Amino acid sequence: MGAYILRRLLLIIPTLLGIMIINFTLTQFVPGGPIEQIIAQMEGEGDVFAGISGGSGDAGNFETENYVGSRGLPPEFIAQLEREFGFDKPPLERFLNMMWNYMRFDFGESYFRSISVMDLVLEKMPVSITLGLWSTLIAYMVSIPLGIRKAVRDGSRFDTWTSALIIVAYAIPGFLFAILLLVLFAGGSYWQIFPLRGLTSDNWNQMGPVQQVLDYFWHIALPVLASTISAFATLTLLTKNSFLDEIKKQYVVTAKAKGLSESAVLYGHIFRNAMLIVIAGFPSVFIGVFFGGSLIIETIFSLDGLGRLGFEAAVARDYPVIFGTLFFFGLIGLVVGILSDMMYVFVDPRIDFERREG
Predict the structure, then answer these.
(1) Cross-strand pairs, 240
(2) How far apart, in whole angstroms, are the C-alpha atoms of residue 219 and residue 227?
(3) Helix runs in the chain, H state only
(4) What does residue 182 show for φ and ψ, rounded to 5 degrees?
(5) Is residue 229's pLDDT more than 70?
(6) pLDDT digits over 81-113, tens only?
(7) What domains are there in the chain, each with its CATH number?
(8) Cβ(243)–Cβ(144) under 8 Å?
(9) Which residues does 279 contact at the CB level (< 8 Å), separation at least 6?
(10) Mean pLDDT (the chain, rounded)
(11) Which of 16, 45, 56, 165 fits 40 for a cystine, CB–CB 3.0-4.6 Å?
């Protein structure tokens, strides 16, 4: 197992390098770089997209005439901006400098917020951790018992109506369900039961410990529910099918023939084998919920997390934030992939990845 983990760790380097090269190359052909963003704001156009026509410059070719021809700004001013942002250097040199800094976990400073990228990520992290962690835990806590019960009562009326219910829940878009919750329970048109924005109340620091915990859950109830609703179907059906596959195997028939009770067979023999794929996939599921689909939920419930940070950085062409977060979370995603494999071995020590590779 040690040799397998070492190989996987070494593979992180070329994989991460490939991700960064592809994304850095693509930005060289996207119109509307940070310098044009500044020029657009100075001329009162709001953002660069209001002023792009044809191909007036791009993210990688920051030659002075690309800006001056249509803006009429002094070349000296444009040249100063290029030096400040580092665009006076060739793309290859900028990329190598960027990767050298990232290898030392120096992600630089945001172009437009005067704050380091790492501090900015840490500032937004609580929202994304809240949505990702609680959504994953609730999905597992509900889906695993439900999937086991559906497997045991396969084909029954309970199995039929619960399947219909979770499929309907899966079919509802998360943003639509979020809006429905907002309208019904957050003062949209009916009841003002839950708050509309933030993770805590303004006077949270003046509350006692119990009040702080209750206030926190009061704020996250609706966004967590909205981000969890579609996760039940996949996890429940995966659990059910895993148990059904194990129930039909010979060792289960043998255990029942020895006189073991149904619960002893179910939880003493079937559970570990059936839950292998479900439990071992927890790290990757958490990362998926952590990063995926949070932008709309954060926007609807006025939460300032990593989803909105990534979107705003992409719109503003804030390259340090874009590439810094891409490198950081790409690295986390690759490490989590290794942790998922280790979880398989932890759940079932009989699994040997080294022997399979051989």
Answers:
(1) none
(2) 14
(3) 2-27, 34-42, 64-71, 75-85, 91-103, 117-152, 157-171, 174-185, 209-228, 231-247, 250-257, 262-265, 271-274, 276-280, 282-291, 294-300, 306-316, 319-347, 353-357
(4) -65, -45
(5) yes
(6) 777 777 778 888 888 988 998 888 888 888 878
(7) 2-117 (no CATH), 118-357 (1.10.3720.10)
(8) no
(9) 343, 347
(10) 77
(11) 45
Q: What is the rounded CA–CA span in Å between residue 22 and residue 131?
A: 29
Contact present, 247 and 270 (Cβ < 8 Å): yes
C-alpha span between 245 and 274 (Å, rounded): 8
Question: Among residues 198, 181, 199, which one has the least CA distance to residue 190?
Answer: 181
Cα distance between the two ends of the chain: 12
Percent of the chain with pLDDT over 90: 2
Whole-number Å distance between alpha carbons of 221 and 348 = 35
Q: Whole-angstrom Cα distance, residue 32 to residue 129?
A: 32
For 142-151, what is each residue's pLDDT tens digit? 888 898 888 8
Task: With cut-offs at 50, 70 and 90, classify the pLDDT of residue 348.
Answer: low
What is the value of pTM for the model shown? 0.72
Q: What pLDDT was estimated at residue 14?
A: 92
Q: List, in order, residues 6 or more apart from 226 with CB less than 8 Å away.
A: 174, 175, 177, 178, 181, 297, 300, 301
Classify 186 as helix, strand or coil.
strand
CB 313 within 8 A of CB 322: yes
Q: Which two tokens stand for residue 66?
A: 């690309």
Query: Is 338 within 8 Å of 274 (Cβ atoms)?
Result: no
Q: Report H helices in 104-204.
A: 117-152, 157-171, 174-185
